[in-house]
Amino acid sequence: MFGQQLLEGLGAGAGYAALALALVLTYRFTGIVNFAQGELAMLATYVAWQLVVSGMPYWVALPVTVALAFAAGVLTERLVIRRLESGAGEVTLVVTTIGLYVLVNALATLVWTAALRAFPSPFPDSPPGLAALAAAGVAGAVLGALALVVRRTGLGLVMRAVAADARSARLSGVRVGRVLALGWGAAAAVGALSGVLLAPTLFLEPSMMTGVLVYAFAAATLGGFDSALGAVAGGLAVGVTETLAGTYLGFVGADLKIAVPLVIVVAVLLLRPQGLFGSAPVERA
Amino acid sequence: MRRVLLVLTLLLLTGCRADGGGAVLTGECAGQDGTGIDADHVKVGGIYPLSGPASAYAAVAQGASAYFAHLNRHGGVDGRRVEFLVRDDAYEPARAVEEARRLVLHERVFALFQTLGTPSTAAVREFAHRWKVPQVFVATGAAAWGAEAERRPWTIGFQPSYVAEARVYARYLAEELPHARVAVLYQNDDFGHELLDGFRRAIAGTSVRIVAERGYEVTDPGVQGQLANLAASKADVLLDVSTPKFAAQALAADAAMTGWNPLHILNGVAASPAVLQPVGYDKVQGVITAGFQKDPAAPEWADDPAVRTYLTALERYAPEADPGSQQVVFGWSAAEAFVKTLRRMRCPSREALRAAAHRLDDVRLGMLLPGITLSTGPGDAFPIEAEQLSRFEGERWVPFGRVIDTRAGPAGQ
Amino acid sequence: MTGVRGAALTGHRRPAVGLAAGDRRRTWPWRRAALAMTVVAAAGLPFVLPPYRLFQVTLVLVYAVALLGLDLVVGHSGQISLGHGAFFGVGAYVAAVMIGRLGLPYPVTLPAAALVTYGLGWAAGLPALRLRGLYLAVVTFSVAVVLPPLLKRFPEVTGGAMGMPVATPRGAGLDDDQWIYFLVLATAAVAVAGIRNLTRSRGGRALTAIRQHPAAAEVLGMQAASHLTRAFAWSAMYAGVAGALHTWTTGFVAPDTFTLSLSITLLAGAVIGGLATPAGPLLGALVVTAVPAAARELNPAAPGLVSGLLIVAVVYAAPTGLAGLLRRAAAAVAARLPAGRRA
């Protein structure tokens, strides 16, 4: 029984992890927390659903959706965020993402209504445990691919340079704007994946990702908010605590289980301020 | 500049206010409040979550609006056209109060017909009491509207309370599965707790036992974890006290777990086609629920005149609504009940409406199941108190057994 | 990596406006007349507005008090708080429990709510602000998420998920809504005066320095953590006071009113109104209350569409907030009018 619950937790956790990864990517590249990340993922999931319903095979629809989400992410950065970046501070940008959040949600409701939609599962007849494992596997594979790109390619080097210090990168001739757009695109693509992973169990509807965003935020926080590995580990941890806390921590109860990861976060902050996986900030003048 | 100041100061001193009082009646109904009603019109306001997390319930407003449109087309209530104003509270109690204020003080409605959801209704109830405005046939199953009618007589419920619904399930289990071990999934709010507590009280003294219970928050993404926990209990029955989205998740998760096949009892709030259809009809066969309304899509009602009127009216006045939805039927029925209550008023006044709502004797409504009527009286402020169980077979709910009257339990609360 | 964090959180990219930037020029020459007009208008309002409109104006003032506080954190300290909805909720519940459960007179609830939320703000800010960076956002986020289920946990005290009705204050000689309006107006006036004193004090100038250039401020001997924590505690207290006023105004508390989305709404209001400006909070509060209502009138099918577009458009058109826009407009008007004595 414990094993079954652990699997369930990992399956849900994989979805949270993917969205947390998307949040962390955006944060690392642009220094802002994107509240619209979940809604963009929801929009991408609707696109995938529309494609599958119109007869496209699942395994074709998935890469098409991820590619579209990537393009949408790049476009959002170019059309909305970039325009503001020169004049406004981070707080203003964060509020822009709040506006996007509201806007995208309303748009989806207008186009697809609030009705629940069944989203196809890639493994329709497998027992829940297996599907969960597969979901976790997909999340792991994406992380691995991302890590390869960032660590081993020239593009990755440039990306790391921009993330480390945008101004110095610009002075060294890196086209920072492109890399930032790329960061948004990558985040949107990973986010789309999280939506597609979660939709078969959560059912597709405009507010599908609202609750997930809270969990993903907790996961990213647990991981230190600037570490991709941390985000994934945090997501899995949140998923597992969520499933197990209800059973094994009687006094917590199901209603306060979301508090468990958050209490951990605050405790971690006191003991290890840079997060479990984050890097310690260095203050410079 | 100085002149402006002078005018404003004068205004302040005279303390005038651009606002008249209510319309006090004279004649045989002397002293009663006839705001919002005259010989040709009656203005009524309703508050629903048209946006936000609970926007699926906007269907109730569609059903009610369709009924009023249909009624106005056929002459209104004793020659009065019903002007129905629908406001959006996004399921936030504070906003519901704001909208109630708008309707009562600004739009000057005669009565509030329906607020949706227990928190919004509870918030508006205080306001309605304060301003002595009837708040009738609210769309929530909390027992408080009936049980506290002495203290808050301006508010009255409509549907069977969640406690009554819990009694129906408890009675069914006690008769059919006397040694059932029950696992409960509940929403951690007033609705979930009330049904769960009602069930717990109703099974006291029987050998039905609750062996596991798991709550979830409305803000949670899903209930898969809770279902995995409940499965560990190996209970025979799963009492599913959840709202539509989570009910769909729970039904799907239950169907996916091959090792655990409990009898799934789905509470009435979630027993709509919009929930079952995405899950897949093949996965929800044999699920049980309790209801009190006709299913407009069922073949046994195909020739029923009330159902036919309902379907034609919906097609004409609310083509965007799903006529098969129980929420739409609910709005329609409540509106019909409201109109029948208006007809029973002795005076065109708020006081008379309140009195009429507390004096219903076996009022029949077209869309209620045969044998289920509205009745209230001194000490009984619960309009509908009977329900019938249905089982999901094929592609629809099939009623079975007799109509269960929950009044025959411990009286009131 | 660390560079981005440094750049992101010290907020040096944000151009300082108005007084915060050391700009002591007057953009609007008739300050006293304008002030007098405002006072008279505010006093006369309850006698000309119908009750429903007056209620809305009262709500705007309530949110303005909360935003005044939030501005201390976001505008003056350059930090992000996602927990002000929760502090607002705590204040509201302190007032509701004291009036509804303990039967205490309502004036007592205001200082009580202030005290409790000041303490809470201190407790939340202490660990987070010692570290700075995104941590305040993280800790306040936790507070915002945990509060609603926690409130539901103790139904004997809080009324549980169903919420709790509370008797609203009544005053002699005036209608209830008028009396509440004046109570809220008076509190808001005191709140504005308090913020002016705070931001012009040593601590307020220190906050500006810390936000503009943390390292330099440190070199000058300012203890960033203690200044920021104090500012955060004050700010939480303002939110708590606003919460208590909200209870007085609406006469009802329910846990689901004080969710994370309230915090997010407040944050949006603070930025849209304009950061670190005196008029910002009032304008922000106006937007927070009026925009959803207006959006519902304009497009009942999808109010979010209008709200979302408005938020993006305002940020786009006026990155320094509505207050910045107004300041520019006022300056333009003052420059054109022949009677304008440029000070």
TrEMBL record, chain A:
The keyword Membrane applies. One of its GO terms (cellular component) is plasma membrane. It is a multi-pass membrane protein. One of its GO terms (molecular function) is transmembrane transporter activity. It is found in: Cell membrane. The chain crosses the membrane at residues 6-25, 58-81, 93-115, 130-150, 179-200, 212-236, 248-271. Pfam families: BPD_transp_2. Keywords: Amino-acid transport, Cell membrane, Membrane, Transmembrane, Transmembrane helix, Transport. GO terms for biological process: amino acid transport. The keyword Transport applies. Belongs to the binding-protein-dependent transport system permease family. LivHM subfamily. This is Branched-chain amino acid transport system permease protein. It comes from Nonomuraea wenchangensis.
UniProtKB/TrEMBL annotation, chain B:
Keywords: Signal. Residues 1-18 form the signal peptide. Residues 42-364 form the Leucine-binding protein domain. Belongs to the leucine-binding protein family. This is ABC-type branched-chain amino acid transport system, substrate-binding protein. The keyword Nucleus does not apply. It comes from the Bacteria. The keyword Signal applies. Pfam families: Peripla_BP_6 (PF13458).
TrEMBL record, chain C:
The keyword Membrane applies. CDD domains: TM_PBP1_LivM_like. It is a multi-pass membrane protein. Its main location: membrane. Keywords: Cell membrane, Membrane, Transmembrane, Transmembrane helix. This is Branched-chain amino acid transport system permease protein. PANTHER family: HIGH-AFFINITY BRANCHED-CHAIN AMINO ACID TRANSPORT SYSTEM PERMEASE (PTHR30482), HIGH-AFFINITY BRANCHED-CHAIN AMINO ACID TRANSPORT SYSTEM PERMEASE PROTEIN LIVM (PTHR30482:SF20). GO terms for molecular function: branched-chain amino acid transmembrane transporter activity. The chain crosses the membrane at residues 33-49, 55-74, 86-104, 110-129, 134-151, 179-198, 231-248, 260-288, 300-318. It comes from the Bacteria. GO terms for cellular component: plasma membrane. The keyword Cytoplasm does not apply. It is found in: Cell membrane. It comes from Nonomuraea wenchangensis.
